Amino acid sequence: MHDAIHLRDMLGLSNREARSEVELLLMRALGVNRARLIAHPELAAEAAENVTYRSNLGRRAGGEPMAYILAEREFYSMVFTVSPAVLIPRPETELLVDLALERIETLQRCRVLDLGTGSGAIAVAIAAHRPQISVVAVDASEASLAVAGRNCERLLDDPGRVRLLRSDWFAALGGTRFDVIVSNPPYVAAGDPHLGRGDVRFEPRQALVAGQDGMDDLRRIIGAAPAHLNDGAWLLFEHGHDQAEGCRRLLEQAGFVDLVAERDLAGILRVSGGRWLTAGSTAG
Question: Residues in the chain with pLDDT < 50?
Fold first, then answer.
């Protein structure tokens, strides 16, 4: 297929990746599923004149992420609406959801805070799998919260269990405390060369970059979290491949115990965290 070869050469994809992406673009433009597309190869030829298909193919050839072109991305077995206002949900972040769900399972009551919710992927995934809990999801961006709101409405039986709030991290939360705090904050260093490559070129910079070493927001979250955690509560967050040791030091300095550092499917230390105990507590 000529279009697949074009994408392969423009983006450095494998033949399989390029063919799969062309199929997805055809399916979206023609309103058919993959089975029909394969059963009727003439449809691909007809798409040569389809305005939507040609436009989307051009956008992809220019490097724009498929998630933004299709306005959706699968995460935790759910299909989320996404837009250029939010970070594209990634498979490695599913580890953060896994670890949060494990800890929620052991708690008799649970109030969860998702810091920097973006598309709402983490908050919605947690709420969908633990129907007894309530979640507060905050973001500094109104555009991000609008996307998160659409995902709550689409994917949750009771969207009201996720409360969306505009806030610069903890700023709008007052003295509210939680049993689990999760976050996938910006953690890329300002000068990281990866910012000029691949999908991240199109993603919102404020959702990616956190100062010269990428740790600015992690420092803020870890330092402020104890004031918003109940006794025995957990803080869990995603970070960069080389930041686990720095995060561990910050957690220790802030007084967290039972520290964890977990690897993603690629073997990279991806999620760290710890438990907060008030002075003299014996919470088990």
Answer: none
pLDDT of residue 279: 64
- Token pair 């998160």 is found at 148
Q: 5: phi > 0 → left, psi -120 to 50 → alpha, else beta; which? A: alpha
Both tokens of 128, joined, read 């969908």
At 150-171, the pLDDT tens digits run 999 999 999 999 999 999 999 9
**H or E element: which one contains 26?**
helix 15-30
Average pLDDT over the chain reads 94
- DSSP letter string over 208-266? TB-SSSS-HHHHHHHHHGGGGEEEEEEEEEE--TT-HHHHHHHHHHHT-EEEEEEE-TT
Domains with residue ranges and CATH for the chain: 2-63 (no CATH), 85-276 (3.40.50.150)
Q: What are phi and psi of 36, to 5 degrees?
A: -70, -40
As beta bridge partners, residue 275 has: 234, 257
CA distance 190 to 188: 6
Distance (Å, whole) CA 24 – CA 61? 14
